[in-house]
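Worked example

This section walks through a single chain of length 407. The input is the sequence exactly as stored; nothing has been trimmed or padded.
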Amino acid sequence: MNGVIHLCLALVAFSAFSHGHHDVDHHHDHHDGIQAASKIHRNIAQFATELYKILAPKSDNENIIISPCSISILLSLLLLGTKSTTHAEILKGLSFNLTSIQEEEIHQGFHELLHLLTHSDNEFKLDTGQGLFLKDDIQPLQTFLDKIKEFYEAEIQATKFQEPKEAAKQINDYIEKKTHGKIVELVKDLDPETVFILINYMYFKGKWKIPFDPQFTEEADFFVDQNTTVKVQMMQRMGWFYYYIDEQLSCTVVQMEYNGTATSFFVLPDPGKEKELDEALSVNTLNKWAHNLQRHTARVSIPKFDISATYSLKEPLFQLGVTDIFTDHADLSGITEQPLKLSEVTHKAVLTADESGTEAAGATAAEAIPMSVPPDFQYNRPFLMLIFDTKANATLFVAKIKNPTQH
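Given that input, the structure is written out below as tokens.
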């Protein structure tokens, strides 16, 4: 019998809204010299949009939250242990072509990306890492262990998978600690035949560069669909924003910057245009939005939300052409001489937008704006939210907020 592998991805993102006055500092060119990470950012963005377009039609009225960056990191780590067709399918699924980039450059790119993504201060925290839980009697190849430490700094722990409950507790305790208590019970019902589990976690917490004032937050209607309306706490701010009205795709894009190197796009499709926007999402679309943002005054209303989602990525990866690794034909001989195949890829993410930290400062942000009435952008129906790290030029999270009250 083939050994079983289970991949897990755990993601947490927070948007913390705080008081305080900050100058607007907007820039689009974030290349810090010629970096290895810059060679892979387009691949991550392309993977992000392709995976989102697979998940979106199946979501019905469920919220979507994924970290393409995190999933890409985990799959690229698997490249170090796969060969033949299994290897080629993962490369293609991640949209890499070895005629335009060498494999060493891919791993070097992710290695640098991991360093660029690690931030920790009072205003902005981003932490990501990898863990390998290995059955205690399995002997992995030393070359594999050396490479995943060298490029991905993976932590390796011996695990008794023959005792599934004990193994699940070990893994879940690890993830709960790494995500500061936000993701619990990532794995359950483990197969006793499991030989190793690979985990990637990502934890993000940021404060807006220009905050919302909680005294203007008020209850409002959010229109989930034609038949469903829910009550939400709607945050509001009038001031200067970078935004773009995309008439071709019938949507409005508002950029909201965090302190530090993170930024986000809030994308509101016109009524009835949600499906068309989902289908049009692409790297070129993201680039068009980034290049067309202009600074103007506006009134922006965004609901508070606290959403999470758990996915089996097996079927979406099938649709991206990554199939061999799940079959008895899987070639994971770069990991161990024992026959292995992948059983499951589990992905869980949490995204929170709230007003935590507001008591830390007493001042309220004030901006001088023209007397003319600015446009009013109300995110009171399903919208997209994309979070990027501008220094690493990486797509951290892609979310669709279908129902802000749905946890």
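What to look for: Residues 15-34, 356-367 have pLDDT under 50 and may be disordered.
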